[in-house]
Amino acid sequence: MTVYYNQESFNPVFGSKPVTGRPKQMEKQPNQLLWNLVFVGIVFLTGLGIYKSSQSIDYIWRWERIPQYLFYQAQEDYIAEFDGVISLGESGVVQLVSDNDPDTVQRVMQPQLLFADDGELVFEGDSFAATTYWEAGPLVDGMVMTLQLSLVSIVLAIIIGTVAGLFRISNNPALKKLAILYIELVRGTPLLVQIFLVYFFLGSVLDMERFTAGVIALSVFTGAYIAEIVRAGIESISRGQMEAARSLGMGWHQSMRYVILPQAFKRVLPPLAGQFINLIKDSSLVSVISITDLTKAGREVVSSTFSPFEVWFSVALCYLILTGVLSLLVRKLEVRYAVSD
């Protein structure tokens, strides 16, 4: 009796002919239109429920207050340096001619606002023209600070996590136990406590700035989780890969760098992306040491607008934008490396 192997089901099949299984094109496909309508219906009902819930509470929504805290139109005034008369020149040039000396002129190139007419007397210290420009509001500034914290912390966390992950699988007992101690201590204590310890203890000893303390705390915390991700990724690679690399004359470091780590990176990319997203959200905790990130900026805006719901919905949307862009970039990396296999 001949034994054939079914590659699709991975089961031994007895018989005279190999069983190929059911072709994919013959599998029944779900009704795309029906299930898309189900999805739209669920989203609609969820939104309707949120709307009805908001109507049931005694709260006046003031969304018109929020845009100015994202972007606002700033104004730069031009102050008269002496008493003089306004003279409108060609190409929109505004001149302030001194009363005492006609040769003394203060020029402003094409101001957007003019507070005095042609020939009008302006006294020293008065504003006679101004230009306007768009300026980022506190929420956008906080979003930029959160992005800076996250990017620097991600880079350092990758370095720390990779080194700790390699130590974790090392045959050297000292390095291995140090890595285990670091991972267990960091993962076993809250991030908020670590931020306080880094800022108030280490920061006081080394005269560390708030931003640096926040980056160190986030990097060390995230690095412990990345270390376990890296360890799991390396151990998922077949031992034969290392043996084949060593048989070609490569050393351990060369084998790890050119053979093992590139393969492990492809496998750990999804969990790494999840960890990076968590880091962006965890960065909100650095507001406790007075770093004006997105969360602290949101608290400041709430205190000035008395519109907590609108502000925190806007803050949540900003975090969603950051994490969504990161997820999209990681997804493109996954597709790129999947094609390169």
SSE series:
EEHHEEEEEEEHHHHHHHH
The parts where pLDDT drops under 50 for at least 5 residues are 1-19
Spatial sequence of strands, sheet with the most strands: 6-5-4-8
For the record, the CATH architecture of the largest domain stands as Orthogonal Bundle
CATH class of the largest domain: Mainly Alpha
Overall domain count: 2
Strand content: 5-15%
CATH topology of the largest domain: MetI-like fold
Overall average residue pLDDT: 85
Structural class by secondary-structure content: alpha+beta
Termini distance? 38 Å
Shape: elongated
DSSP E strands, number? 9
**CATH homologous superfamily label of the largest domain:** MetI-like
If helices are DSSP runs of H or I spanning 4 or more residues, what is the number of helices? Answer: 10
Give the biggest beta sheet.
4 strands, antiparallel
**Fraction of residues in H or I helices:** 55-70%
Q: What is the alpha-carbon Rg in Å?
A: 31 Å
Write a compact overview of the structure shown:
Keywords: Amino-acid transport, Cell membrane, Membrane, Transmembrane, Transmembrane helix, Transport. The chain is an alpha+beta fold and 341 residues long. The protein has ten helices and nine strands.
